[in-house]
Amino acid sequence: DTLQTVLDRGELIVGTGSSNPPWHFTDNGQTVGFDADIGHILAQGLFNDPSKVRFVNQSSDARIPNLLTNKVDISCQGMTVTAARAQQVAFTVPYYREGVGLLMLKGSDYADYDALKAAGSDITVAVLQNVYAEEMVHQALPEAEVDQYESQNLIYQALNSRRANAVATDLSTLKWYMKNNAGRYIDAGYSWNPQSYACAVSPDDQRWLNFVNTTLEEAMYGVEFQRYADAFEQWFGERPPAPQTGFPAEMR
Amino acid sequence: MTPIVEVRDLHKRFGELEVLKGIDFTVAEGEVVSIIGASGSGKTTLLRCLNLLEEFHRGDVLIGGEAIGYHLRRGQRVRIGEREVARQRAMTGMVFQAFNLFPHMSALDNVTLGLTKVRGMPRPQAVELADHWLDRVGMLKRRDHRPSQLSGGQQQRVAIARAIAMSPKVMLFDEATSALDPERVGEVLETIRSLAQEGMTMVLVTHEMRFARDVSDKVVFMEDGRIAEQGPPQRLFLNPESPRLQAFLKTSSF
Amino acid sequence: MTPIVEVRDLHKRFGELEVLKGIDFTVAEGEVVSIIGASGSGKTTLLRCLNLLEEFHRGDVLIGGEAIGYHLRRGQRVRIGEREVARQRAMTGMVFQAFNLFPHMSALDNVTLGLTKVRGMPRPQAVELADHWLDRVGMLKRRDHRPSQLSGGQQQRVAIARAIAMSPKVMLFDEATSALDPERVGEVLETIRSLAQEGMTMVLVTHEMRFARDVSDKVVFMEDGRIAEQGPPQRLFLNPESPRLQAFLKTSSF
Amino acid sequence: MDWTYFFNEVVNNRDALLHGTAITFAVSLIAILTGTVLGIVIGIAVTYGNKPLRWPARLYIDIIRGTPVLVLVLATFYVSAAVGLNFNAFQAGALALTLFCASHVGEILRGALQSLSRGQIEAGRAIGLTFDGIFRYILFPQALRYALPTWITAAVEMVKASTLLSVIGVAELLLTTQQIISNNFLNMQFYLLAGVIYFLIDFAIEQVGRFIGRRLDQPTRRTV
Amino acid sequence: MNYHFNFAPILEQWPLLLSGIGLGLLLALVSIAIGSVLGLVVAFASRAPSRWLRSLAFTWISILRNLPILVIVLFLFFGMPQLGLSLDKITSFVVALSLYASAYMAEVFRGGLLSVPQGLVEAGQAIGLTSLRIKRYIVLPIMFRNALPAFGNNFISLFKDTSLAATIAVPELTFYARKINSETFRVIEVWLVASLLYIVCCYAITLVLRAMEKRLVLEKA
Ligand SMILES: Nc1ncnc2c1ncn2[C@@H]1O[C@H](COP(=O)(O)OP(=O)(O)OP(=O)(O)O)[C@@H](O)[C@H]1O
Ligand SMILES: Nc1ncnc2c1ncn2[C@@H]1O[C@H](COP(=O)(O)OP(=O)(O)OP(=O)(O)O)[C@@H](O)[C@H]1O
Ligand SMILES: [Mg+2]
Ligand SMILES: [Mg+2]
Questions:
Q1: What are residue E147's phi and psi, to 5 degrees?
Q2: How confident is the model over E144-163, as a mean pLDDT?
Q3: Which CA distances in Å does D129 have to B122, C84, D95?
Q4: Domain harbouring D166, CATH code
Q5: In terms of CA atoms, which chain D residue is nearest residue C116?
Q6: Start and end of every ABC transporter domain (chains B, C) (predicted)?
Q7: Domains of chain C, earliest start first
Q8: Closest partner residue to A150 among E79, E81, E166, by Cβ?
């Protein structure tokens, strides 16, 4: 019974990574990021003290094994929910909906997504090298030139040196960049390729899963919204839509 | 008869070192002059001055009556321009100790290069002339060989053809045989001898005393940048006047 | 007196080419033997067999009574191991035409290397011995010079000291003077001569006929891989029997 | 151009730049040292080895020298993981550069050894040295002298090649520069700065090589 | 290791691999052509009578030889637009490689020039050729022939350096190798095939150059 074990221990053990801002990265020796804040929200729910959490650094392919061997109580590490994975672990409710967006330089020749699309093959989009990269960009901008680079770094250099008119990248990364370079970039205002990020716990522990789900839902739609929204704003540079009173809209 | 080569009070200095200290001599048309002397006495330098491969700083060199290398402008000696130098060089034909054939060209092309590029001769005519001279030096059969495919003696004969094909007024030979294997020396000397017999004007720097004696009309003995003695070979070799020449002849092999 | 060197029916082949076709000769203690013969007759190859720088495929070479290069195992000739070969090589001292001094070492170190690394002598003792031999060949004053700072003749004298310092039973010289400038030949020959006079056993391959005549106790004339004639120098040089030797001596300079 | 901003950024990022330079030094040094040791073995095998030794060594040299360093770096990084070797980027990169350096050194040593005259080997034999002794006392010390200037050029090559590790995420000087650029967008200035630093390092190595090359009295080559 | 090799998914992509090699060769060829012309100018400058020209030439060589080629590539591609010079990726890469090549070619040609004996120049003078013609008919042809082996080595180096074009999204062999790698995850096979293709190409280039050398290089007389 994980919930009892955690309560007895007086500390929550969260598995996460260390090198992927804004999700989880190290700053002055502390693990920080949106994933880390989800851990703090859970600790608040467990002990009424958000600091009672310990982060275990794990590589992304250790996410599932560490759960199954009880090395961690929960993995919160930007994990995309897929049916195949759900057969091995239990996913919590999603706490973020990831997608792909287009980042542009402020004051560039094209105002927004529609302008990019209208420009047809005149524009170049920089993207991280990947098999599906070209196809993925063409879903949004069917005629654009696609330049594939080897690292995140080079993509942004391409944009900044105006080698590319836009960068196609994860929404979260896009927002993080915009937040950290206020006034430099704009979002073209179009996103596609949705996928859900959720924490995962060991299967067969319904009570623990229920607890985590409840805590997360109340953070997103209920009493703890303030905490969730602050974290969201800190890492993504904007506030999530506030829950409305009356009918619980998420049930719609 | 005006001389083909006339050297007057020629001085040449390398930096501090004065190598030619006032040379006077003439070569008449059809004459063969040998220059002998100890190593370092200035023979090569003198020959190179005649061909303008070295500048000289005092005196005159006249080839066919024309002063070479310099002209007077407002009483000053002025070095002439490059095209003029090139033209004047072609008045003499030079044969080097190290052959200096162009290694990337056949024997034939070595000879035609000057004819087509300097004389401006059309190629068929140049080839005809080159063939004539290659035949004369006995190298016609090897006209399409590269220098690397020829023996030293054969290379030197091609080099002679290359020089003489330009119809120079005078041929200059700088120890043309001393880089050769002993058994190759004869063929080159033979070639030179036959040119001499046909009346070609020549100046030879040589260490082959016997050859110098047999072939020359005049022998010039140089000693430390000066001409110590000159005259017909019979007199010079049999009755050398200066003790220096006597000593020199004693150490030379015949 | 048992001979220092005994060669019996020595055959040596390079691929198809048989270079030594059955050589028999002996060198007694203190004897000086010169090997003469035309170029390509096999002199160098014979000498190199004595030093095991070449393998031979038939016959025996005994140095100080010990068969070198091979031993018999179950009636089969078997090449001996590397350490054994090295030990046997040190029984003879070889002086090469091209000196082959180690260019990165001083004259002294060239001599001490074998003493310390092969003989296992402590360095002070090796230096003392090396100095002794360098002095003997007149090179003590240059002991700290590199080969590149020495003339050819000086290098060869160091090479002689290097070989003899190992106290070989016999010294082998392969045209020790033919890579030298004419004016340097004398100093090396003088060194060899004085070693001969002190009773060193030596085998010399040489083209210096006069020297061979003066210094040798026995002269061996080789012709096409065989010994055509051998005997005391007076007889060989004054009354050659074979027409081949007569012809050879005629073309050689004394 | 706003140079004050640039200088401020240089000062702000000095620790990162120093760290990157240190990584560049470290990885180059590892590659040069271990690569040299390995390369010496390979060079000896190629020059004096018997067939079963010579062939693999020759093949090694030809294969590594026929492959672009970038491909070598990428291949080492990905393949080492695929065969279950748990190298991080730094280790994989250092390994790739080491392999590269070894092939260079092997080839350099072969050239140097082969330029030594056979006569010296024979002279060594004649005084009774075994091959071991001949190599230790005669061949190797001379080969070192010949090879030293080229070896130092190879060291410069290693420093230059270390930039390729940026591609697999080793935070050496170039990647550090790129990271800084991604924050301040001073592409030109910071690439220029990186270029200057690389130039200074390489130029210094080159000058040291020149100096040593002049100091060493080169043994005269003989072809007898 | 019981790894099951499967080359099919990689070899299926042969048109990509081939086009990658083709582009690499083309980049190398164009770069060495431009680099040679520049290098020749620098080589002559390095032997010019003017002291100023000479030190300019040596500075040029020294700077370019001591810079990592990747830094030059990135500087030109990402840095130069800041100065308003925005060449497209292929042009920009060719410029980088040509500059780099020019330093090496300058050294090659310098060596080649030094290897032309002064006696040949004098022989040309003696038959009355002007200095321009001596350069054209004697010095340059001999220099080129002497420089050919070093030229070949440089060409192979440059061909290998074209792999760096992948970093600025130029689709040559390394670029496609990475792409196929991320698609098939046949890591070992991908890199084996890529290396092999490079090695084979280098070897083929060597053979062609050897054949040329055999015809052109001058044996010692
Ligand atoms: N380019 C030069 N620079 C300086 N000194 C030179 C140069 N060429 C020749 N000399 C010097 O000029 C002197 C005469 O040299 P030259 O070559 O004319 O002599 P030579 O009589 O031809 O001798 P040899 O018989 O040895 O060929 C010598 O002392 C030589 O060292
Ligand atoms: N390593 C070798 N491989 C093949 N043939 C060789 C080798 N060494 C020598 N020969 C041949 O063996 C023959 C004898 O050579 P050797 O050097 O013993 O002659 P030599 O009498 O010393 O001649 P020289 O007076 O020219 O030195 C020659 O025909 C030579 O070409
Ligand atoms: Mg002379
Ligand atoms: Mg011999």
A1: -85, -10
A2: 90
A3: 68, 11, 37
A4: 1.10.3720.10
A5: D129
A6: 5-249
A7: 31-54+92-251 (3.40.50.300)
A8: E166
